[in-house]
Design brief:
heterodimer, A: 426 residues, D-Maltodextrin-Binding Protein, domain 2, ten-stranded mixed β-sheet, B: 294 residues, mainly alpha, MetI-like fold, 2 domains, two-stranded antiparallel sheet, 71% helix
Amino acid sequence: MRSKLAPLAALTVTAVALTLAGCSAGGDAGDNGDVTTITFGNWRVEDAALWEENVIPAFEAAHPEIKVTYQPTGTDDYNAAIQSQIESGTGPDVIMCRPFDVNRAWIDDGYFDDLTGLPGIDGFTDTALAAWQGNDGNPYCVPIASVLAGFYYNKTIFDELGLEIPTTMAEFTDVLQAIKDDGTYTPLALGSADGWQLSYNVLDSIGPNYWQGEDGRLGLIDGTKKLTDPEFVDAFQAVADLKAFMPDGYQSLTYEDQMQLFTLGKAAIMPDGSWDVTAATATGLDVGVFAPPVVADGDQRYLQEMPDQGVGLNADSKNKDAAKVFLSWLASSEFQSIYVDKVPGFFSMGSEPVTYTNALAQEFADLKTDALLTPRLQLDRLSAGNPPLDDNTWAVLQTVLNDGVSPADATSKLQTDLDSWYVPAS
Amino acid sequence: MIRTGTRYRLLALFVLPALLVYVGFSVYPLLSSVALSFFDSDNGGSTFAGFGNYIYLFTDPYVSERFWNALRNSVVFFGIHLVVELPIGLLMAALLTSNSVRRSRGVYRTLLFIPATLSVVIVGFLWRLIINPLWGLVSFPLLGDAATALPTISLMSVWQYIGIPMIFLFTALIAIPEDILEASRIDGARAWATFWQIKFPLILPQFGLIAILTYIWTFNGFDIVYALNGSAPGPNYSTDILGTLFYRTFFGSSGQVADTDLGATIASVVFFIILVTTAAYFVVLQRRLKTYEL
């Protein structure tokens, strides 16, 4: 005779186990006595240790009643993750903001609270705040960091082959040709599998020297210039000319492969952003950085400085007061000194000067002297519709490098697609 | 004997929990997604748009180009599975049930099924490393060339899931009673004839079933392409399938803002395509396949 109690006992045990599991999972966030915990959603998984060991403890020491939880999501999934979290009401209290058009769409959807009047927000210039303004002109995110784009180079390889840092595009081609002729190293650590970095780190890095930075970018926005103008076509041609110096099979090489190729000492030069200062030096190589060369000797030099990270307040947050304290602290110079020091490669956007202890980061920052700065070409107002100039540029650059599409055809396609929805703000 | 009324009540009681979960997590989201496709939300507040989203999907030059491209790629993705995965699965199932691998049958069966248990991200990255021009064995950039990228990813997916049709057809093959095969041997049938004239017709219904299941799974496919190429996949959208098109439209990507209504429209269209084709298959083909009482 089988026991009649056994099934009942099994059922009870299961029910109790499930309840306990449910309780322990849900009891983490929220108030615990007088300490409020706020969550910080962002896309910098790579910086988790740096934030959790250096930045957040400094904040919690100054404000013991608030705890901050660092909640990163990988950058490719970040936009989708934040959108679904906010739509379902489980978004983090403070959210890292993408620049320009994507953020404006989020502001229009009501994700963020207006930050006018936040203590510390007036310490930023209008250009700094511009990337995170709504259509009403109010600031919605505190600017944290901007990034620069340049060319990392292996100093040992340069010394070995007797090369100098190029200052003009002609010298740059000569340097690349010399490395290629030598045969031991790959001239350029660049692949075309990841389209975004072709656009942000190559086109938008050497391009401003062709289209005169802000003149070109604002010209596209107000309609006085077109992508089919000669200066833009020349910039695309300069990118196409790099094909000869890319490694074999570059069509399959991803961003990670590039970094591996460079840090293993097999390639001499890598176009990349300042956020990879730590990664580029991770294997102990002697790495320097040079700015994108000018077209002709004596030209004004332009450098890409992109407002990269801002932090905004979730409109549905339940801990707004604590979150606002955190945001004010992020606007202070105390945070900025710690951040740019401990997370090298990101540059402060505040008006007060900051020094960088990381030598390579300082070298990067020094590239700004005597250069006119401009953000990436496609992200402000030109990507708000369909097809967005940003994604379109990625795909088109891949066709230029992989399928041999001519720069004239490429720019003409981009301009036609842009004209299909974009009305210049004149 | 339980009375009929009580029997039906008991049946309903036992089915109810599973039914609730199914309705709550499958049927309701499906219906609400279809409902969402009939609305248009511009800057807060949804307005009823009727079939406006569908018309936009099929007439706007950029959106429709992406859609037809994704549909074409999905058909290629399914085609490669149909032509490569099913015959090889059938071959392996036939080998496993033949007399040659009697002793190590269990070992081979397990080994061939293991890739199906691996995480799709692991499979993708492993294969990508193997075919990487820099660190791997192949110097031609398979994933970077628009012509070879989609077949390559399809073959990776085939490699991973080859165990599924194999197990399916294996169970169908071992259900064939030994006396039928003995009779065919007495009549002088050799191995090839035994397989194609006796075994294969007997498993034809199951073969059709696994074919249509492969169709449904590949048209709903998403994870391997997303794991390898992200949400705007492939060199110039050449590996963009319906799943990734939907994901990119609904959630947006780093440069593209999200359009949830258009995404819901795409999802509804995909559902409709799969529904119609599967229904047509069952009505037209599956009925014609003779099922034998074994």
